[in-house]
Each structure stands twice: as C-alpha cells, then as structure tokens.
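PROTEIN DESIGN WORKSHEET
SECTION A - STRUCTURE
LENGTH: 247
TOKENS:
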C-alpha cells in the first residue's frame, strides 16, 4: 500500500498550498520534481521504511537488490560480473580494474579496443601534437605493427617532400601526416596539415583491409587534420595535388 501511495505522489505535480515552492523545476525537460520524492527517498535510505520507490514516469522500478549485489561485488568480490538484462551485455569488472591500474600505477601503456582490434600508441598522438603546435617535424610516418599503430619515422623540419615520399614503402601500407607550406595568391605564407592514407596496389590484400578499417579510428586520435588524401601511387599525392587541395 505504501509503495503504491509513493508512486502516485511522485507521478503527479501537486499544486502548492504553502508559501514556499514544494517542487524543483528541471528546466531542461520541463518536468517538476515534487519534494516528497526526495523526502521519501531519504526515509528509505535512513530508516529503510520502504523496499523500493517506483518511478511512475517510466513505469520501471529499480529493486534495491541491484545495489546490494553491486556492493557485494565491490566489497567482497562475491561475483565476477552483474549482467544488464535490459541490453543483454555485461561489462566484465576486469575492464574497470585494468583501467584503474593504468590510471593509478601506469602499469600499461594502452588497452586495446577488441571491437576494432587495433590500438593506438600514445606516442603517435604526442608526436602529432608536437608537429601541430611546435612544428618540430615536417612529417610523421605511422605503421601498424603487432595490432597497434606506432611511429615509424619522424621527418626533421629541414627535410623535403622527396624525403617524405621516399619514406613510404612501395609495397606496404602506411599512414602519414605532412606539414605542407604554401603561399596564397595574396602572397600570404600558410600551412596545412595533410593526412595521407598510403595504400599501394602492390600491398597485400589483408594489409589493405586492416589499414582501411582502422583509418577513421586512428584519424580521430589526431585532432587537427585539415586535409585527407588517399593514395595508391605517388602521382596521387604529388606536390601538385597538395597545392590544389591546400587552397
């Protein structure tokens, strides 16, 4: 009887009879939350007067056994995981534990996302930020090795486009970024950061598939890419192509 009464109280907006406003307005959703909801929750929390309080808006109540079982898992490690029946997907607690180890103790350099199968070494992002902010490098060549993207070569600022082109193997896929300088028609010196997905026709099919499927995931790690090129031979990434795409 009491839980049903609480449900009814929380599911209606009451007209206040007192001078103070008994509701808190949620400006984002336009829904008012009556202060009796909070009071009844405090009673449940402090005195355990009720077993649960239903949310009439969604029609779904959260049983306190959910919280109790979670506390058992957290404190006593009685369970390995608790599945979310709504989604059908359980998150193994080892995921959180390993992340906490990485965060607190730096036991690991990275944790791979099994969905894509490819991890990105944080040195890739660090070197890219140096190129972007300090212009420490003219170009960076990346390769996928042992299921992670790593830095293969760093081009010094004095190195030329020819040096960059020579750094890309003839029969293997690579990713690269290139800091391209140019002069506008108004005689202004500018630069553009190019991302190049190098995928020569002579590369192995499996390698092409891996680089193609991992490209977008890797690009998201490099905040500041301005132009993207996909090249299968040197003519598709020549200086004339850079010039036409830079403007």
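SECTION B - SEQUENCE
RESIDUE ASSIGNMENT:
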């Amino acid at each position: 009887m009491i839980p049903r009464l609480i449900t009814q109280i929380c599911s209606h907006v009451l007209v206040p009879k007192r001078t103070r406003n008994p509701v808190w307005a949620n400006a984002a959703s336009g829904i008012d939350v009556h202060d009796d909801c909070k009071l009844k929750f405090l009673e449940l929390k402090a005195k355990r007067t009720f077993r649960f309080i239903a949310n009439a808006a969604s029609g779904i109540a959260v049983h306190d056994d959910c919280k109790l079982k979670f506390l058992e898992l957290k404190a006593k490690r009685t369970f390995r995981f608790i599945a979310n029946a709504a989604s059908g997907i359980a998150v193994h607690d080892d995921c959180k534990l390993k992340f906490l180890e990485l965060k607190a103790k730096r036991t690991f350099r990275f944790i791979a996302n099994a969905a894509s199968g490819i991890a990105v070494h944080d040195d890739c992002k660090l070197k890219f930020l140096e190129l972007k902010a300090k212009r420490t490098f003219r170009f960076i060549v990346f390769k996928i090795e042992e299921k992670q993207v790593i830095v293969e070569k760093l081009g010094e600022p004095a190195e030329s486009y020819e040096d960059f082109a020579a750094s890309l193997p003839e029969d293997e896929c690579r990713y690269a970024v290139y800091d391209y300088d140019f002069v506008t028609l108004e005689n202004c010196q500018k630069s553009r950061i190019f991302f190049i997905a190098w995928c020569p026709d002579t590369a192995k099919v499996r390698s092409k598939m891996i680089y193609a499927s991992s490209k977008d995931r890797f690009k998201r790690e490099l905040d500041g890419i301005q132009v993207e090129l996909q090249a299968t031979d040197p003519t598709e990434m020549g200086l004339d192509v850079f010039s036409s795409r830079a403007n």
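SECTION C - NOTES
Helices lie at 2-10, 35-47, 64-76, 93-105, 122-134, 161-166, 205-221, 239-246.
Residues 1-62 form one domain.
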